[in-house]
Amino acid sequence: MVHHAVVGVDAGGTSTRCAVVSLSGEVLACSRTGGANLFSGSDPAAAVEAALGSALEEAGDTVVDGGVFGIAGAASAGYTEAVRTVSRVWAVLGLTGTPHVTDDIAVAFASGSAASAGTVLIAGTGAVAAVVRDGAVVRRCDGYGWLLGDEGSAVWIALAGLRSVLAAIDGRGRPTVLGDRLAEALKVTPGDARQIVRAVHSRPPAELGALAPEVTLAASGGDAVAEGIVADAAARLLTNLESVAPRPMGTAPVVLAGALLAGGPVADAVQAGLRARHGVAALSATDGAAGAAGLALRRAGASSAAHSALLAAANTPMR
Predict the structure, then answer these.
(1) Same domain for 29 and 95
(2) What is the pLDDT of residue 33?
(3) Residue 76 sits in which domain range?
(4) pLDDT digits over 218-272, tens only?
(5) Are 11 and 48 a contacting pair, CB within 8 Å?
(6) CA 235 to chain CA centroid, nearest Å
(7) Are residues 164 and 279 both part of a single domain?
(8) N or C: lower Cβ tally within 10 Å for the chain?
């Protein structure tokens, strides 16, 4: 039996995910490959081609009516490069029609809500808040990368923890269990500032985000320094969201996305802040590929019900 379907691709810095979805919202196939960020990926086109090709092969006899690609770094790089990359992959795989390219921010919103407009707050390796309308970002705050921004992100939290450790070592700061936790994670001697500095500078900045769980776990365990970092991260994320969100915030959906906002003390603090300040119960993002496929369904003329059905199914994580 031949299925008419759309494809959704969420190409991030860590991984590229693809979903092939029927026009009724049924997931026919999905796949995952390496990262495809236009700035940090070693070969973004290869990652996208591998993800899409694998999913199409699994889907079997399928006619693709369209697709949406959320590409990390697309907006910052200018969409020309992203469109060129996706168009080349589309042609290599022999697909007809014209794929639509957007960024991973719009896809993240669509992975949590089938509404045409709303706001999204993302906190993972990086951090950004945005207003999304009809599958496009119309206003954003932060998302400037680890050196200039991404306040409240995993990298930001890791760097704040490392700075606190160094401050404790040289007497500027309070004692903290982060000294032992982060030294162990970095495989260096606790209390040796030089080793810590060398270990941190030897890593790509994005990889430092892997240290953030040490800070959040220490906060959950009652370490005062870590608790302060988590509270500061949540406050900065809320400020970013409030800077772009319409007032009152309760009139449109708010979606939280990214590993830090999927659970844990930062997510709890952000959710509590939204309830206390604005009476908002935020929605949680699902799989980014489902969000991209949802946007593709809408562009193919499917109803919002098909998009909603896809998101409901995606609450069972796609492999």
Answers:
(1) yes
(2) 78
(3) 3-112+287-314
(4) 999 999 999 999 999 999 999 999 999 877 777 789 999 999 999 999 999 999 9
(5) yes
(6) 19
(7) yes
(8) N
Q: Closest by alpha carbon to 236, among 301, 150, 162?
A: 150
Max avg pLDDT among 21-25, 83-87, 90-94, 129-133 = 129-133
Tokens of 223: 């370490």
267: tokens are 């997510």
- The domain total for the chain is 2
Confidence of residue 1 (pLDDT cuts 50, 70, 90): low
Burial profile 289-303: b = 16 or more Cβ within 10 angstroms, e = fewer? bbbbbbbbbbbbebe
200/307 same-domain check: no
Looking at the fold, whether 87 and 181 belong to one and the same domain comes out as no
Tokens 């086109």 — which residue?
Answer: 45
How far apart, in whole angstroms, are the C-alpha atoms of residue 282 and residue 229? Answer: 23
Q: What is the pLDDT of residues 172-231, one digit of tens each?
A: 999 999 999 999 999 999 999 999 999 999 998 888 999 999 999 999 999 999 999 999
Say what the pLDDT of residue 78 is: 65
Q: Do the domain assignments include residue 126?
A: no
Tell me the chain's radius of gyration from C-alpha atoms: 20
Which residue in this structure is represented by tokens 């009152």? 248
